[in-house]
Amino acid sequence: MSYELHVNGRTSEEQPRAGQCLRTYLRERGWFGVKKGCDAGDCGACTVHVDGEPVHSCLYPAARAAGRTVTTVEGLAAPDGELHPVQRKFLDAQGYQCGFCTAGFLMTTAALEAERGTGHDDGKLDDLPRAFKGNLCRCTGYRAIEDAVQGVRHTERPCAGQAVGRNVGAPAGPQIVTGTARYTFDTEVPGLLHMKLLRSPHPHARILAIDTAAALRVPGVVAVLTHEDAPDTLYSSARHEHPTEDPDDTRVLDDVVRYVGQRVAAVVADGEQAAEEGCRRIEVTYEVLPHVTDPEEAMRPGAPVIHAGKGPEVRIARVADNVAGEVHGETGSVEDGFAEADIVHEEMFRTQRVQHASLETHGCVAYFEPKEDGGERLTVRSSTQTPFLTRRALCALYGLPEDEVRVVAGRVGGGFGGKQEMLTEDIVTLAALRLRRPVKLEYTRAEQFYGATTRHPFLIGVKAGVRRDGTLTALQMRVVSNTGAYGNHGPAVMFHSVGESFAVYRAPHKKVDAYSVYTNVVPAGAFRGYGLGQVTFAVESVMDELARRLGMDPLVFREKNIIGSGEAMISPIGEEEDLHIASYGLDQCLSVVRRAIAEDRSADDVPEGWLTGQGTGMAMIATGPPGGHYADARVSLLADGTYDIAVGTAEFGNGTTTVHKQLTAGALNTTEDRIAIRQSDTDVVRHDTGAFGSAGTVVAGKAVLLAATSLEQRLRTLAARHTGVARHLCVLGAESVDCAGRLVTLKELYEAGHALGAADELAADGHWGGSPRSVAFNAQWFRIAVDPGTGEIRILRSVHAADAGKVMNPMQCRGQVEGGVAQALGATLFETVRVDDRGEVTTAAFRRYRLPQYADVPRTEVHFTETSDSIGPLGAKSMSESPFNPVAPAFANALRDATGIRFTELPVTRDRVWLALNRRAEGVGR
């Protein structure tokens, strides 16, 4: 039976496999703009046109497309390369961040645009919540996408040397809107083998035997790997500059499984179907062990010991008590502080597991490349935020020299901290080294939920004392963080959670007891905010409650107790000597909120009977992680008179690539289109700690700026030597150096450098060690309305104030804030990774997990303070993580104002709100 499919003007006649979906058929033929985000028709990243109709190609059978015309995002543009009008709109508005979802939005929009004015036009483009009900974006908060659809232009083309502070478009923009940006798996690797993982059905068990014989008989299966094939070395999947920050409690494949979903064996085959069948044929004999899923129970005497037998060398705080890490500290005497107080308020708060839900799942491909001096070396192409730290870990794990391993990240489809882990590279490298063949492992969406990591669930007890005049006397917290089966990031998240959350308030007496606890559930890990979001929810809720009990305006109460410019940041866990208030914008943030409250009229049209309220939350965060975060950069003049930046940090929608080019363009007095950039590749520079801790601008950006500034000096010196004109009379321009009226083109200067034996002067290096560090501030305000009859909540207005220092790119920084607010609203209102009493994840799909859709997210008004940081590059601060942190408490405080009920557990779902209101009406509870 013949088969013919027309794709973007080309004909494909190869018969699809039985049951093959159109998405995989297209990607196997090089149409990489068609993305895999969910495999269930939930996210829309795979949207293509079939005979002009938009379809989710992951659900559309390839066989059904026979004889039809398919258009992917690569086929939207005209044959001469002219962009489709929708592509141009998304480029002008920068309607994307990481860009992984963008093709889906483009294809949906283009199809609806084509229907305009026809009999098929049902008005969806005038009702975007309905138009985009099948498309998800995790990064943007949707406002930029709305602007793109409506033709709003934000991008600018500034003059030479004027890029900083302007809305320069992302360098990868043209590739994103045409589907040619290359993410992790958007590449063809000859002879590729596919890996699938057999995972544990038990929360805690010892593996007694594994029979792989039947699996090896499956046609196409090449190898089956078990714990007997894996090194005995213990390590952590967390990636930090200093590996000792995390307990070494993990093996590549272990003979003890500690949660449902832990990998047991790996099957490698010539196709995914064969590998999956191989997994089904493996027979495992388990000795089922007792398990525990509650962290408080896990610390009690007699609880199952999850990492029994591990010694002090692995840096687990108390193995027998399941405590991965703990911190205890006190400044002053909280006992005295509570005795001095006129009012003492005590409350317990609980936060849930949240999935990062980056649309590109975890995965990597490992293969061998020839070396210049003969032989070959291993290359690992991975969706990672930490290429250099991952290489270091792989080399340590397998005893390889660093020059024998290259780790490279293509464009990364979202991270949010989840890719500050080594979750696939270790097992894929084991297979590649064993077989000496290319091997790929790509997580399914379900595996992201039960086989990757989540945000840490917290239990936070807060006790605070205050005098009648509103002065805090004491602040005490007990924090229990559920790190899950492994301690990756566990102690560090716990430690960070009780740092700035304490330090932002003045109180003479402070005390903390915090624990990171093992349980038999999916491991937690790094997540946007790194613990601060959980504890800030509790602290800011208590501050609001104290103000209410005092009859004081919550803003006035905060202003009375927050630290000021130049004050010491005191936390009971100890002072961080390299952390400074290098600029102060918290007062301005609260002023933004005060103005919003004063002018607000959003409640005027609320339906009769609805309850309305307003609330504020604020947060402080360090602009980088402690202990050093290192970045190397090199900026070079090229033979054609353009520049090249080499920097190690990864780009995943955080905008650092744009900022690095802006910083360089400013230092070299040129335009950003004359600068190329190479990044996230261990071949590019000596070292880079990674794209986490909001370090892309304040660490890697600082290294880039130092390199560019040094190169500017070198080029002027070289021009003076070449022309005989005094150096101070040589002025660098966009394409030439003006030497007292004589123009020396940059191409000529490059040639002169080589002729004069000064080729080394055509490049300069920069290094920054991430210390000293500053702090950034954020405040969020909501006005909401609640229907007491149904529990429905409407956000009437959302205002966010951000102290980002000198804003390098207002358009991008605004997008980071909006995306952070949207993600935090999801965690506040409905997102939760649910587990049953065995610790098994029961929400392993987007439709069961509930990500924020277009219709769920309000348009947040973003205001930047006027500050300039004395530490950050050109006065900049970080702003990727911090917008997340004040959102939940601001919402909870608004809900308290509207309903009179203090909600202490996240998420505050509609049914919880209705139940609480109902119980109060019936006289039950608070």
Description:
27% of the residues lie in helices and 21% in strands. Helix 19 links the parallel strand 23 and strand 24. 58% of the residues are buried. Helix 2 packs across helix 5 and helix 16 packs parallel to helix 24. It has 926 residues and is an alpha+beta fold. The strands form seven sheets. The chain has a seven-stranded mixed sheet, with helices on both faces. The radius of gyration is 28 Å and the shape is globular. It is built from 25 helices and 31 strands.
Question: What are the main properties of this structure?
Answer:
27% helix, 926 residues, five-stranded mixed sheet, alpha+beta, 25 helices
Mean pLDDT: 97
- Major sheet description: 7 strands, mixed
Please tell me what the overall shape is.
Answer: globular
Structural class assignment = alpha+beta
Radius of gyration computed on alpha carbons = 28 Å
Number of strands: 31
Helicity, in percent?
25-40%
Strand fraction equals 15-25%
Strand order of the largest sheet: 8-10-6-17-14-15-16
Summed up, what is this model?
With 926 residues, this protein is an alpha+beta fold. It contains 25 helices and 31 strands. It has a 7-stranded mixed sheet, sandwiched between helices.
